[in-house]
TrEMBL record:
Top-level taxon: Eukaryota
Transit peptide in keyword set: no
Residue ranges occupied by any Doublecortin domain in the UniProt entry: 13-95, 135-213
Lineage: Eukaryota, Metazoa, Chordata, Craniata, Vertebrata
Name of the encoding gene: Dcdc2b
InterPro entries the record matches: Doublecortin_dom, Doublecortin_dom_sf
Full protein name: DCD2B protein
GO cellular component: microtubule; microtubule organizing center
Gene3D superfamilies per UniProt: Doublecortin domain
Biological processes per GO annotation: intracellular signal transduction
Keywords attached to this entry: Repeat
Length: 229
């Protein structure tokens, strides 16, 4: 290639990509250059693999307003985008590293929902008298664990927790029938749950012993040390 051709080559762009609708994914950095990605589709295929998307990534959106990115030339250096499949763009505070808790009031069974994205907020959970744990989906090594925030002050109804897990997990086998520790032993009641621990939601199938924590919790996450009990 001539020196003039090198001069005309588009410069590489550094971007950060988030998973659509995932408040716990902190983003993945990509360097987009013409040598590596000749087409927009090639970039989308690489993004699918790199962020472990549950479905193939087919669209990129701006994080604040959800404007669709149509081609490589639309990407701006130093900007953030949201990777999605064919589903609609989901509005979240993607750009906040320590995503805010959005805790609802406890219902009659003492269950509260919380959406967050950083273990830096642990102190505020204690102030709210909340109980926190992370849950993997049985046999699923593509989806990160989802989080549950429960009230400490109100007795926990186990059937209610299983119903909540069913709604959040979306298991292919259907309802969540049991909750297991990472070693496969079953949890039979709320009093057995350990604050900050990881569990696996299981349906009618057998528990599948897989490296959930090792593959789905980021290596550089401080939460690996804090929550792996």
């Amino acid at each position: 290639m001539s020196s003039r051709g090198l001069a005309l080559a588009p410069p590489a762009k550094n971007v950060v990509l988030y998973r659509n609708g995932d408040p716990f994914f902190h983003g993945r950095k990509f360097v987009v250059n013409q040598r590596q990605f000749l087409t927009f589709e090639a970039l989308l295929n690489e993004v699918t693999k790199s962020i472990h998307a549950p479905l193939a990534v087919r669209n990129l959106y701006t994080p604040r307003h959800g404007h669709r990115i149509a081609e490589l030339g639309d990407l701006q250096d130093g900007c953030q985008y949201v990777a999605a499949g064919f589903e609609k763009f989901k509005r979240l505070n993607y750009l906040s590293h320590g995503r805010k808790e959005l805790c609802g009031t406890s219902n009659s069974n003492g269950v509260q929902h919380c959406v967050h994205g950083s273990c830096r907020n642990t102190g505020s959970w204690h102030a709210l008298d909340c109980f926190y744990c992370s849950v993997f989906r049985n046999g699923d090594l593509l989806s990160p664990p989802f989080q549950l925030l429960l009230s400490k002050s109100t007795p926990l109804q186990w059937d209610t927790l299983l119903a909540m897990l069913t709604a959040k997990a979306g298991l292919r086998s259907g309802a969540v029938n049991k909750l297991c520790r990472l070693d496969g032993t079953q949890v039979f009641g709320g009093e057995e749950l350990v604050n900050g621990s990881y569990y696996v939601a299981v349906g009618t199938e057998e528990y599948k012993k897989l490296p959930y924590f090792e593959l789905l919790v980021p290596q550089n996450s401080a939460c690996r040390t804090l929550w792996y009990v």
